[in-house]
Amino acid sequence: MAQPGAAAAVVDTGGVPEGPSLWQKRWWIDRTARLLRGGEGLGPEDDLGALLPLTKEQIARRFMLDERFGDAMLDFNLFFLGFKSDHLKSGSAYDRTVFDFPNAVAAAQSLLKDGDYFKLFDLEGPFYMAPLRSEPLDEPPQPGDEGLTPAQLRGKAMRESEAVFADALAFAQAKPAPRRADLCKTVEALADSGQTLTPQLHRAFDDAEIFALIRGEVLAQPLEMLAKVAEKACDEKTAPAAARKSLVEGLESALAQIRRAFAAIAEFEPDRYQPKSVLEFKRFALSAFPTKQKWLSFGFEQGMALGNSSTNFNRKRAAYMLKRFFCDDLIPIGFESPQEHVAGVHGSQTSCYACHHKLDPMAGFFRTYGAYFFDYARSPDIIFDDLASKDRALYEGVWKAASKLPAWNIGYIRSARFQSYNSYGASMGDLARILRSAPEVKRCLVKRLHEYIVAEDQTIDRSYLDYLTREFEAEAAANTSHAFKSTIVRLLQSAAYEQRDADPKRCYDRAPGSLPGEGPPCRVAFILSKNCAQCHNAAADDGAARLDVGSWILAPDGQRRIFRHLDDKLAQLSARDSLARVIERLSSTDASMRMPKGRVMGSDERQELFLWAQEELARILEQTRP
Amino acid sequence: MMRALRQATCVALLLQPAGALAQSSQFKGWAAVSQELSIRLAPQGHPFDLDEFLPSRSMDELLGTWTTFGTEHRFRNGMPNALNMTIWHAALSGFAKAVGQSCTSPRLVFHERFLTTLHALCAWPAPAARDEGVLFAFWTSVMGYNAGEHEYAAWRDFFLREYANQSATETVAAMTFAITMNPSFLLNR
Asked: What is the reported pTM?
């Protein structure tokens, strides 16, 4: 074995004798450093010798104290949300796209401060504006803008917009006072100038910045407010003095709103703001925006990726939520027939309803959000990403429930048949509460963490996933950040993480106390034992005993393994027939056929078992093809 | 130089993990590989701009990437294929050449500790450069501990045997290329 020369060694071995376990530990440390320090593995500055004597948990905890751990967790949060990038940073500056996911940022910050990591599930909250652009825009400058830096152009555009309001106010406050008709004409013209003022301001900003200006209604709301003031004040019935006073106050208020917003935006000029760590990410003062609302966590990129057309009814957004937060890929496996008749577009088409019974109620949480997740709750119409518009009340009516309770057919649906299993709500706040409390979401978070730390395609024993989730839930009841860090440590100590060349189909870890057996493949063994084995076991004293899901015997062909599964004449079924029956029973919409009978099986578990059975069956059919 | 690169490629291919399930693994991607090389070899806070070694700067996306816009992100182009292997070959041979040429005229700015190792290796084929400590330090500097010990031994023995009389520039380039084309270096696991 190689003995490193002390003088030339780049990574100091600390004088510890070499050996396979030591090499393995160095590999583990390097891999863990990369994972917990935002991609930065061991380098010449690291004292490997000081780390080697520590336990793996101590090493992991030490890396968690490094400020780069914030980057690693932000990266994981983006992975969880489905928007991971190659780089969080270019050089020392964060890529502007990472600011676009405020729940990911807030959760990473909380984790570093041992705070509430479940901010990841808050769909409304702070806004982390990115440092304003420092590279010139792609478009050629307009006449008069030539030679200006991006910051100079922004300053110019904001001053110009401000001047329009200031000029109108100066006119209104002039002595002698202008005639009411002239003043009304000025204010009405200003209120009506959105189509001129908006592009004038926006020319200095890029798409992501314009997205923030529009959502914050920086120009739209002052102009809308002026229009309302003018409508009232310029009515002949209003006394001239009162009208003038009202118009002046309206203009003062509009100017103040604009100035407040521009001042807050200027705080994000790159010469003033360039965070070097996740903790330095600064919240935008949302009170400076005329809307003064909490910021929806779906930002510019999600606005692009999760568009909602006038015919889509937010289903794309709903599918995203189910996939990302519930690990439900909407595999169409049938559904339990509802106890009541199902109405609606897909109500009579059972193959469609297999997904839509979950999809449509989830979509309802987004019912007031149109193009780019703009909230049209205050508007009579809603405009979609295909630029079509609809009457909002009519549109929202799609989600009105037929029964009194719940008032809306909106929620996370676990069962189309048994309403008591479902979690209903109506607002984004309700959805966030469901995300925070649903066991499926915590299980999904742990599953994604396993994928992130070990490998995306590595099979996980469901009993091990359940064990990790149980531990996580128990610790999260006291502190979500501690619980999350402990789960990371558990995964870093798992056997799967230790594999240099892992077999993706093998389960390397089991829940404590569970013994490796000769049972069905680890991918589905726990699902079968949890959902099916109570009835389908060898000791059952009824017809259910004809299938023993705990067995894994040689099939009649003498080649494959399959459950002990007997037909009516008590003859063992072939692997192909056995799997076909399993698939049929899992996906049946007939409540008397569908398994497990009279019980609700978790969506992700049904999906996993169904996919496994399908893949196995496909493999058999492929092998037996002449 | 071409002979060296061809041979080094052979070493990389011979060093594939035994009974490999590597076909199920994917490339780490250009961004991750660039970052790893920068962390190990470049001065702190001054990462390499390895894009200059790509045949075309936009080709990084073909080597495995998470980055996209306007859709959910998933890792794309990570499965090894004829096209991306050709690009990896071109990019990493350029990088390896630059490391080798740094024996005579610096092409890249290296971390001081790596520079010490490199200077020692640049005495090749002198005995001082063939020292076990120097070879081990060079291997771990570039590869880290991504590969198993047996792969280090195979790499070392190959160069001690096959490059016994080659120039330092050629040898260092071939050594670097062999390490960076190793599946343990390029693939996720």
From this structure: 0.87
